[in-house]
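Feature request, filed as a ticket because there's no other form

It would be nice if the structure record came with a short human-readable summary line next to the tokens. Right now we just get the raw output. Example of a typical job, pasted below so the devs can see what we mean:
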Amino acid sequence: MIDFIIKKASKRNKKLRISLSAPSGAGKTVAALKLAYGICGDWSKIYMIDTERESGSLYADMGDFNILNLRAPYSPQRYIKAIQNCEQAGAEVVIIDSITMEWSGSGGCLEIQQAAGSDYKAWGIVTPMHNAFIDAILSSKAHVLCTVRRKEDYALEPDATGKLRVKKLGLGEEQRSGFNYEMDVVFEIDQATHLATISKDRTNAIKEPEFFITETTGETLMNWAKSGASNNLDEALEYLRKADCKEDVNLIVNEYKE
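Raw output as currently delivered:
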């Protein structure tokens, strides 16, 4: 019986997981749509889960993409069901705009925790639900782009000459800490300039320190995801020759679905 599958490292059929973080008004939704089109090249294969009071429809002139309007309660379970519905409809790219509501929106994780007692024991209920939401993103058959609101504040501080200058204070995303660890790329978009920087990058595909997110950005990331393929068919056949039970075959099929 085969206990484990060991195969060559490959990005073949890699599905991208991308986060776009910015304060309100910075252009997260437009940037996500441009990325999505660059990734798949077909507006009809792009599905947006819109939690922002149907604001996604304001960008219908960009292309013939699809919208699933998700309203309160913004529980992890309802997000998961929305992702599954988009997959079943044939989505190649799913945009979740935004994931903030899953955490702090009406019926989201923070409200669930409060309703369960507002103590550490209540997190024993909320954490598995939130983890299931993260797993739904990571295991999706589609590329998944997540927008997330970022809190920001400003303060007056003296510069080297003693003059007061406005300094922007980043206060982090409105999501549970650690979410960005699961992403391949994390874009942070400046509210004033709409320029993006990268705070996390597994791809090393984009070299510019600041840039506008365009369709070309999505194409670049997709080229990275498709590169480095190994001969998976030969590997799968070699394991099948060693298989001696139904469980072995199921294990091999799950590892080599493509």
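Something like this underneath would help us a lot:
The CA atoms of residues 120 and 195 lie 39 Å apart.
The longest helix spans residues 120-138.
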